[in-house]
Amino acid sequence: MSRITFPFGPQHPVLPEGIQLSLTCEDEKVVEVRPVIGYMHRGIEKAAERNPYPNNVFLCERICGICSFIHALSYCQLVEELMKVEVPPRARYLRVVWSELSRMHSHLLWLGLLADSFGFESLFMQCWRARETVLDILEMTTGQRVIQSSCIVGGVRRDINADQARQVREMLNKVKTEIDAVLPVFQKDYTIKARTVGKGVLPKGQAWTLGAVGPMLRASGWAWDCRSLGYAAYGELGFEPVVENGGDSYARTMVRARELVQSYELVLRALDSMPEGELAVKVKGAPPAGEAIMRTEQPRGELFEYARGNGTQQLERLKIRTPTFANLPALLAMLPGCEIADVPVIVLSIDPCIACTER
Amino acid sequence: MTYFMNEIAVDKGALGLTVQQLLDENCRLATTVCLDQGDYFEVLYYFHRDLDLVTLRVKVGKDEELPSISGLHLPAALIENEMKEFFGINITDIAIDFQGRMLLTEASLQKPMLKNNANRMEG
After folding, report:
1. Which of A276, A331, B44, B66 gives a 20 to 30 Å CA spacing to A218?
2. Domains along chain B?
3. Which domains are present in chain A?
């Protein structure tokens, strides 16, 4: 049988960002895949070595526009770990609120893109309409819709007062009503199931050995989520990972759908139990000589950061390993054997973020 | 944060054996970190052991070779390519070798993460 190799991307309707997969096919079946990346590399790790350490918060939150808050949070927690800074309890709860709102808008964005990928335009619009309200909440509480700049080393820059908290609850209830309307469609619709059930199967053992993280890993039966480590206020909010066992694109959709509801509940719980107090502690001096690592859960999975200080205002090294970087080997294993027509949905099912991957 | 972290200093000749032992214990690579320490590189391999971490710390002379672990553990290939590209560390036998063109182009500043590398970003 003759083989043909052709590029999937870097420009493709399901790819919001540039990445190319070189697909080798026999008839309609994919037999080999090779990633071609490098379209979006910005040298962020190098740039971070040149800034005074507090300024890197602004750099890190620009790694990606979707999970910008958690990038900032990870970096702040990393430096706080290095400098042994204790963050006030109220700031830790506010960090959970904004992290989970970020996860909600990321998952709603992804669910909309998934619907769009197989031409379900009305569902796409419903998901993105709900997402708009989440962005409105972020704008109301931080002043910004995308790059919030509300996290600083030592705490947070802004508070959510009682009146705002009441408005957040009202707006979130509106979002919940919209979520409740769309989730059954993702769960039960014949077309969606036809396009996702059994597509891009990642068995449980392979998911672990290939380094998958986030919803990719949890959809293959692993209760593995960095929020279980209890960072920020997660340890006090009773967090349990969402797990599905199918290992296919449908299971990954269901993990994100259920996490949407979980994030909604976490935001409400954090608002209800948020203690009064300071928003930040003043951090003086420079990061000492030494190393620290930080792991947080982005919407796409584990974000792993490493920092090395040398007693100056600049970090000697900042390493950032993003979730999509970790999920690429699993994607390359899922594609061989599938039909060409299923490639877009399988690629989308990992929720790829190329800006994060290449930094 | 509550998790356990174990660190092991490893000679580069024993790296493959140690990695295989960790894989046999159901560990997997989380990421690696390369550090330019002047006349040598220090490479940290972080492995997940469930939610805990195991770290291998390997020192490599700048003119020495470091064997790839991607033959044992394929997910290491991408991060090894990145280290090779950013630092010029001579990692041999990477399972998928991008030949220094995974993230950088011919027009990019080469080995940009080396400490003594000129920073064209200033211009």
Report:
1. B44
2. 5-118 (3.30.460.80)
3. 40-358 (1.10.645.10)
